[in-house]
Amino acid sequence: MKPAQLRMFAKMGSRASFGLACVDLAKEIDNLMVLTADVSTSAGLERYRKSFPDKFLDVGIAEQNMMGIAAGLSSEGYEVITTTFAPFQTMRCCEQIRVNLGYMHQKVIMVGLASGVVLGELGFTHCAFEDIGVLRSIPNITIISPADCFETIKATKEAIKHNNSVYIRLTGGANADMVYKEDYDFEIGKAIKLKDGEKLSILASGTMVAKAMKIADELDANVYNIHTIKPIDEEAIIEASKTGYIVTIEEHNIIGGLGSSVAEVISKHKLQVKHLILGIPDAYTKAATYEDLLDEYGLTSEKIKKSIEEF
Amino acid sequence: MIKEIQKMANQMRKDALEVAYNAKGKSTHFGSAMSIIEIVATLYKGILKINPNNPLDENRDRFILSKGHGVLGYYTALAEVGFLKKDELFTFECSKSSLMGHPIQCKQKGIEFTNGSLGMGLSLGIGVSIALKKKNLDNKVYVLMGDGECNEGSVWEAATSAPHFELDNLVLIVDNNKLQLGGTNEEIMNNRDLRVKFEAFGWESKEIDGHNIEEIYNTLKQPNPKNKPVAIIANTIKGKGFSFSENNNAWHHAPMTEAKYKEALEELKENL
Predict the structure, then answer these.
(1) How far apart are CA B115 and CA B124, in angstroms?
(2) Where are the domains positioned within chain A?
(3) How far is A203 from A277, CA to CA, in rounded Å?
(4) Is pLDDT above 70 for B272?
(5) Looking at residue B224, what DSSP letter applies?
(6) Range B2-271 classified under CATH 3.30.70.580
(7) Residue B62 contacts by C-beta under 8 Å, 6 or more apart in sequence?
(8) How far is A99 from chain B (nearest CA, A)?
(9) Omega of the bond prior to A139 within 30 degrees of 0, cis?
(10) Residue A42 — very low, low, confident or very high, per pLDDT cuts 50/70/90?
(11) I need a labelling partner for B131 at 20 to 30 A (CA). Which of A36, B22, B233, B261 fits?
(12) Are strands A141-144 and A228-230 parallel, antiparallel or unpaired?
């Protein structure tokens, strides 16, 4: 991967990057099927749809049916990717996910578009800060929150090789921050330490990884990219706890997401560590633009730094 | 063929009775199973291309029991054609058995999908139908659904899409016994005319007597019209076969007592 390409992905945003990943996959995988619920343009799949019409299925605005059809195709040996906006990809069809993917263990890769609060100006119907919490209690589903557009591509390709169903949660918009400026090893379930520090450990996922990187030096902090929320990398958390102070940051409800996952590991291993959970408060606030919501929730680099210093 | 199917249906009804009695006080959804006996017997004896010695054969027809609670009318058919051993039937609803109160996917035993959460089997069937077409297999997919199940919105998402995808390898059968858990369809949620509804959704839609084996067989033998899925509304009687359970909604999931079991055995003798 050339640096110019990585810059291009960031400019396009995670959705278009996902669309490109699908084009690459379709060239290699004969039995690939990509399903959408009338969001092919929003999912960056226009080029894919035109290039591979036989490997594409639009089920209309019917997410429950999409997940049933996906499971039926999976049962017949197809590699299936489904995609729509995150709330509809997860909560609208949660029962189909639970029974078909969880209980029955049919493998499907679900890609939730525009998760978090990037679509804040459309109101909370189109945001998803509950999706990880909802899906995390269903067995047999791996949850990935890529840190940038390049990682979105890597996660999509790795998910194909993975045994379980995968939920890939895309956060942020176009002109996204870049965490990775060159190629690196991505392994599902294995956190990546991006910076060394001594005073504390920041564990972040999705868009919050880039924000953590901006303040890491000033805080003398370790930064871990916890791209896989489930199964969580327990060893990385044990290692991170050695600073005595863990901060988790996520564009998700402070209940049920990365912070909760890390707290469970701290509890399980009786780690002696302070833990600050930063994220979206458990409330439907007044809807606003992405920037204003992040500011309100204290999820800008400056406010994150302030919260950490005050803890 | 019709006589053979009738024989199998009788045996299934007897086996289901024995298994329900053996389940000792557990809920068995007896009435919901009795209404589908003739339909399932006809499929397994006379229609489905399946081979119990090669359960994963790609060239097999696929059957999906979407109304998963009707399992006693399903496991008993799987036992009749050799996917299950008769003894295994008596593990029904026992701890760690493969044969619980709703089907759990086990292709080796002929169970294509896990079901029980209503309104999901038709979408699964559509996925399989699309897959078979992509593989250029001429096998068919049969989905058996309940009329009460048609209350679920997901059924109509699926019903809209099957004609859109021109799935002429898909056959849906609705067990129209006109009762659901809490009462009649009319009282709880009126389905109105399901044949007309499926027709309006773009299906080739038919209505038959769901206990008349000859009619079921002849209907299922007809090929789908080009590019169209077929919906068969099978009018049935919940609890069919025993005077105490026919159209008696208490038998939706009543346990089989010794007294009723003995009464049922007597009736079976008379009818055979």
Answers:
(1) 10
(2) 3-171, 192-310
(3) 10
(4) no
(5) P
(6) no
(7) B112, B125, B128, B132, B139, B140, B141, B142
(8) 8
(9) no
(10) confident
(11) B233
(12) antiparallel
Q: Which residues of A touch B116 (CB under 8 A)?
A: 99
Cα B5 to Cα B11: distance, rounded to the nearest angstrom: 10
Q: Which residue of A has its CA nearest to B107?
A: A75
DSSP A25: H
Within 8 A of A71 by CB-CB distance, chain B residues are 113, 123-124, 127
Q: Please answer yes or no on whether A74 and B127 come within 8 Å at the CB atom.
A: yes
Give this prediction's pTM.
0.97
Closest-CA residue of B relative to A33 is: B131
pLDDT of residue B253: 84
Architecture of domain A3-171: 3-Layer(aba) Sandwich (3.40)
Name A248's bridge partners: A203, A277
A156: closest CA of chain B, how far (Å): 22
Which among B116, B126, B154 has CB closest to A72? B126
Q: Which of B124, B160, B164 sits opposite A68 (nearest CB)?
A: B124
Extract the tokens encoding A27. Answer: 């060239």
As given in the structure block, the two tokens for residue A296 are 């309100």
Q: Is the dihedral of CA B264, B266, B267, B269 positive or negative?
A: positive
Confidence grade of residue A72 (pLDDT, cut at 50, 70, 90)? very high
CB within 8 Å: A68 and B128: no
**Are the beta carbons of B127 and A62 separated by less than 8 Å?**
no
- For residue A120, give the DSSP letter: G
Taking only residues 79 to 118 of chain B, the set having a beta carbon closer than 8 angstroms to any beta carbon of chain A reads 105, 112-114, 116-117
* Residue A8: predicted pLDDT: 87
pLDDT in tens, B38-75: 999 999 999 999 999 999 999 999 999 999 999 999 99
Cβ contacts (< 8 Å) between A75 and chain B: which residues? 112-113, 124, 127-128, 131
CB contact under 8 A, B154 and A69: no
* CATH among 3.30.420.140, 3.40.980.10, 3.40.50.920, 3.30.1200.10 for A192-310: 3.40.50.920
- Number of A/B CB contacts below 8 angstroms equals 87
Q: If you search the block for the tokens 């250029």, which residue do you land on?
A: B136
Single-letter amino acid, residue B222:
Q
- Residue A261 buriedness (CB in 10 A; 0-12 / 13-18 / 19+): buried
B218 by DSSP, 3-state: which?
A: helix
**Residue B135 near chain A (CB below 8 Å):** yes
Choose from A29, A57, A63, A65 for mutation: most chain B CBs within 10 A.
A65
**CB atoms closer than 10 angstroms to residue B69:** 25
Domain ranges in chain B are 2-271
Cα A56 from Cα B203, distance rounded (Å) = 23
